[in-house]
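Input chain follows. Return structure tokens only.
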Amino acid sequence: MTQKFLLSFALLATAAAAQAQTPPSATPAAPAAALASSPAKKELAARIVRLQQPAIEALARSLAEQPVRVLMDRVPMLLSTRVPAERRDAVATEIQGDVRKYLEEAVPVVRDRAIQLAPLTIGAMLEERFTEEELTQLVAQLESPTYRKFQQLGDALQKSLVDRTVAETRPSIEPKVQALDRSLARRLGLTPPQAPAANQPPPPALGPRLPAAGASAPRAAAPASRPASAASR
């Protein structure tokens, strides 16, 4: 999702942090004239924004999907408590269609506006905070083959961390999730799920579960899949 955006702008953050932390005696502050806007700086800033367009589009999609994630968190419980069992599959399919329609309409609106605003926000800040020489260096870094290779590894890097973290924390976290599941069920007046036998998988939980080791790293929400059972949330 937005990890490439964050990785790309890590360069900008690193450069800005270095400027802030460098003792004044070591490197004098850039004169006001060097930070003043100029056609060359505008072009360099615009170039950086263009290089970031795929990440900006991914960020915009995530923003458009955020309300869907909030709404869809409630759907499994509502399906199980408000919809007759024989209608749940059909209603779940209809909800998927509604979500798909929303995304088809909302994502282009947010994406196009984000692209229009990027030069006025990101570009303007780059012009204000960086000298022409610094912007030139940033463009060279963002366009370097080494950095592009690093950026392309973003998904694999995140997945390797997620897989290892899930695998090594599941034994301690899974019982806590199941205990929370049973506590929530009791408070909501539902039948608490029974603790699974040693040779059986745990029942579907009310709350979110840990992803399986080897699963893809979390991404922006897509239309929710059909609930597996009445107690899926």
